[in-house]
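Sequence in, structure out.
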Amino acid sequence: MIVLLPFLTGLALTGIAWPRRKAEAAETLLLAALALGLGLGAASLTFFASLVAAGTITSAFFVTEVVLLLVLGRILLARNERSRDEVVTAGRGRERAPRLLVAATVVMLGLAVAAYVVLFLDKPNGGWDAWMIWNLRARFLYRGGEHWKDAFSTLLDKNHFHADYPLLLPALVARGWTCAGAESRLVPVAIAAVFTGGTIALLGSSVAVLRGKTLGLLATIAIAGTPDFLHYGGSLCSDVPLAFFVLATLVLLAREDQESEPTRGFPFLAGLSAGLAAWTKNEGLLFLALIVPVRLATHGRSGLARAVRELLWLGAGLAAPLAALAYFKLALAPTNDLIEGQSAGGFLEKVADVHRWAYIAREMTIELVKIEHWGTSFLPVLAGFIVIVGAKVEPAHRRSFALAAWVTALLALGYFLVYVASPHKLEYHVGTSHRRLIVQLVPAGLFALFLAVRAPAPSPGTLRDAKMREPGKPD
């Protein structure tokens, strides 16, 4: 029940939102990956809501999840009964990826699983942030009874405990322990494995659906072969779950761009995913602040009517996670340490210090090309890959590429500016966090990259050049 019930809820939710058509293996995998992440996000929200309503952990969260699943399941059945005639994607399934590439992908995924197991055996309680912040907060929720709000006491050390961090991961872990009836180490490990594997599956399947199986497999190898991504996935922290929801939002909006007529489902799920990103980490708030204006900018004036409709459904998806986040931030969380430690004079002094800018730029650049963290020299390899295969953003993907590229770049810029204005000792702040900040951006950055590279021709089995037609209609 720890993962199964949220997964079924996620399947029902994505099934309602998805256009009714025959799905290939890649699109089925895409649906499953989204269902896992969004379902777990919804479970976190229901657990938190029941905790707030009852004042302690009760069976209310489980009852709520079951009722939600039944309601969504009934809506899905009714939708399918109303639309028995399927819309078929012309030409799907003809592309065959090279067997050697398929074998290389299988090997890389096997190595990734082995690496994850080794990480668990080496650090079964995760990294510092896992047991100092995320799992410790989960223990407050699980053990606290009527005093669970003590987890947000101002008496706790803000510089290490960070009681203002959102609760998606702690709520999921506390929910898992409640279902298991004990504080098992396997619960946070299983949740971390789902988000790590789900991010790999989401990137590979989305690229396969949009650009073809060959590029989808290459994207899978790229993310599964990134040691720091696996390291932070196995550290039981919230950086990879945040990366999942950022990527899911971009993927869902990219799928919306492929539809000839605007839909309600894709923007709704994208809004839910963006809200869950903010419910995961404070960095998700920056992503949430960026996604709407950047999306509007990519639509341009000619697409204003569609953009307004899209934003309405995006807002509907945002409603539940934003309500939870607003209550948490306004009623429970103490002031963030980065804000509380600021002064007007100190802020201006830091911003005017050229040496701070240079130090941050140097450290971030060095981190990007460190062989021991990325397996290979990350940027040169990506640049070499683009030189070899060529760059070509196809017209059907220009808006999606612009969104993914701009959001990734602006997030990186936002992180950089936070360092510039940080009230903490700069060397300590940068040194203890810049690796995981880069990991948060890697899946979204790779998604943008694989929207921009030249695809093997022809790849008729993708949404890149498929024509949507009704059964019985000629092409």
